[in-house]
């Protein structure tokens, strides 16, 4: 009889550990899914930028350095985004994306500031459409980032709670995920994407 009670306790403990571990995996997958939503919007942004630069190039021939800086920043952001997409719970990958996105936002801000000096560019219908699409995409990125940060917070809190932290330490391999925050003060400013007078 004592053996059956002991066996029952062991089975209950094992099931308890399995339940905690399964929830941890589900939360980790939720983080990955939330990152995928950011990745979709970032990719849309990256796809718009070459068209934006190409349209501006016809009007801003003397601003070659600025246009190249935008393309280089875009390419860096694409590379960082691809690395993060392969493992969205890797804190270093997310930090690299945040840094690359900050550089891209800064380069776009300089492009938009210079574009203000080109009235023909401001009046270009293609440029207006691209700017509108970019503004919509920026809003979608912001919403996706919030959903990702919520998923990261749930995942990280779950790992730290007792007795979940015992299971995490026992199984290992579950580092805290990194929030996707805008650290650069310049990048926190809303990118002005309108040429209205």
Descriptive notes:
- The structure is a single chain.
- The chain is mostly helical and 197 residues long.
- It has one domain (21-188): de novo design (two linked rop proteins).
- It is 80% helix and 0% strand.
- It has 7 helices and no strands.
- It has helices at residues 2-57, 64-86, 91-115, 119-123, 125-160, 164-171, 185-188.
- Helix 1 packs antiparallel against helix 5.
Largest sheet: none
Give helix and strand order, one letter per element, not per position.
HHHHHHH
Q: How many β-strand stretches?
A: 0
Helix/strand class: mainly alpha
Level-2 CATH architecture: Up-down Bundle
Unreliable stretches (pLDDT < 50, length at least 5) are none
Rg, rounded, reads: 23 Å
Percent of residues in helices: over 70%
Key features?
single chain, 197 residues, mainly alpha, de novo design (two linked rop proteins), 7 helices
Explain briefly what this protein structure is.
The protein has 197 residues and is mostly helical. It has helices at residues 2-57, 64-86, 91-115, 119-123, 125-160, 164-171, 185-188.
